């Protein structure tokens, strides 16, 4: 796991975003154990204090939970999980819309392109799955 | 915590430190940045009393430097001070004889971490591996504070990465680290605090996550503002 951090956003914010993406894509499953703070710092090559900060924030947002001295885990709370998913979808759509808007494309044309592109991409994914 | 308070230092008539003040916390990595020849090494030397200061005060955990301070704090110079004919094992033994706080178990772990062989002679090592041995000898001591002078300077990218990995590993533990550097790119995400120095004065002292969070600036952005004004 190696993240490409940008230098202008707080690293802890980028770490939280990274976790949210992994949750939304299913790479991290509800109830799954996550690395210790020190392990995370080592994996992502970040300051251990920053890893600590990211975990503290995620704990407060209910994204992860810790029982006694056991390793922290991803939440099983359906409500929180669906909020994460919505948040990421909205972010992706927002950035897509703003870049498309700047080229002045009519909405109908965009939707048609999105549909064609989406179906093609899904087929490619299916094709890859069949081959594996 | 290490507190540097209004420290002044002259070499002859030349004023090298003109009233330097900053702090470095335990459990954090503080980075002294400055274009070369601005007194970074002199500051580290002053903290360990390797060089006398004209005025000002240096406190380690609230106390002035005394004999016991040397078991608390270690200065790792930018070049190895061991004889080239020594094997790594000899250098480790030398440190063991010299310091009560030598931690053999950690030294062994560091050997593995850096993929070094005890039987290798220092004169046969690459620049990168020499730098790693130099660092190992300091890191293996059970001190609370480590002062590293240019640990990333003049070595290959893979050695730099390996050395940077130490800072995110358990080997650094809860110790306080001060490193000097004139290059920040490799380690921007690793450090807690930056002290920008020029011509013997501190131009700015800031926490990296705070400057990103509150001003949306990278460390290099701040350096540009401060140094190119």
Write the layout of secondary structure elements.
The complex is a heterodimer of chains A (132) and B (229).
Chain A: H1 11-24, H2 37-44, H3 48-60, E1 64-65, E2 73-74, H4 78-101, H5 107-131
Antiparallel strand pairs in A: 1-2
Helix pairs in contact in A: 1-3, 1-4, 2-3
Chain B: E1 2-11, E2 14-24, E3 29-33, H1 40-47, E4 55-60, E5 63-64, E6 73-76, H2 88-98, H3 104-113, H4 127-139, E7 145-149, H5 157-168, E8 176-181, E9 193-198, E10 201-207, H6 208-215, H7 219-227
Parallel strand pairs in B: 3-8, 3-9, 6-7, 7-8
Antiparallel strand pairs in B: 1-2, 1-4, 4-5, 9-10
Helix pairs in contact in B: 3-4, 4-5
Explain this structure.
The complex is a heterodimer of chains A (132) and B (229). Chain A is mainly α and 132 residues long. Chain A has a two-stranded antiparallel sheet with strand order 1-2. Chain A has helices at residues 11-24, 37-44, 48-60, 78-101, 107-131, and strands spanning 64-65, 73-74. Chain A has five helices and two strands; from the N terminus they run αααββαα. Chain A has two domains: 11-76, Orthogonal Bundle (Arc Repressor Mutant, subunit A), CATH 1.10.10; 79-131. Chain B has 229 residues and is of the alpha/beta class. Helices cover 31% and strands 27% of the residues of chain B. The model of chain B has no long low-confidence stretch (mean pLDDT 92). The A-B interface holds A 5, 7-13, 38, 41-42, 44-50, 53 and B 27-29, 164-165, 167-170, 172, 188-192, 208-209, 212-213, 216-221.
